[in-house]
Amino acid sequence: MEKKVGILYGIGVGPGDPELITLKAARVLNRVELVYAAASTKNSYSLALSIAKPHIPDLTPVKMLYFPMTRNQSEKEKAWAAHAKTIIRELEKGKKIAFITLGDSMTYSTYGYVLKYVRELAPRFPVLSVPGITSYQAAAACLNTPLVEGEDSLLVTSGAKGGDRLRGLDEKPESVVFLKAYRNIGDIAAAVREAGVYRFAAGISNCGQAGEKIYRDIQALCDRRPDYWTLILAKKNDATP
Ligand SMILES: C[S@@+](CC[C@H](N)C(=O)[O-])C[C@H]1O[C@@H](n2cnc3c(N)ncnc32)[C@H](O)[C@@H]1O
User: Which atom of ligand 1 is nearest to the CA of 228?
Assistant: First the structure.
């Protein structure tokens, strides 16, 4: 009998709305033999899992992989390597495995880090990454505003260090998206304002999820502490096409 070969699927399940998972993601989830979901060491809840759950057969085992929420690089590397080894042990048994993450699997995703280690430590295993709809695509749709048009360019950046990524650009892009904006919302709003070219700036929290909130005035967002699932979209053009 032919030996089963393990395969890893990295699946982006979309940003929150359960209808924004792709047909491909749903089909793969329906036939894998094991599902891993990422969670923080501080909180065992996985939003990605709640989205994927209806597509995972009851008998398919689901396991959590805990990632520390820390700025300590060596602690993070340790977790990525350990989780990659856990996945590789299952791949060696010939299993089809899914690793699910929120939004797109290749956009600011733990999957990217774990994948790097799986590739390094066990390059013989095939990997298939399934893209998902990103949070900022969902946000633009939710605001009914195009992200980019014609010759426009778009900056997608982390806001974990505030607004400096935008300040550092001599030529400001037509559109800018800050993910991971929650801790530095005040500085990001200030950088958008200082740029002096953005006629439209909105914040969205929990896009497509329960508790979705749209802030068409980002100052209003600064006055409260937005939660982790918050992004900022600013555009030189007006919001409406
Ligand atoms: C680690 S990144 C993950 C990005 C994700 N892989 C994607 O494709 O959008 C987490 C950040 O994405 C943004 N985010 C993800 N889902 C969101 C949602 N439903 N509403 C608003 N922001 C969201 C927030 O800025 C959050 O801090």
Answer: 27
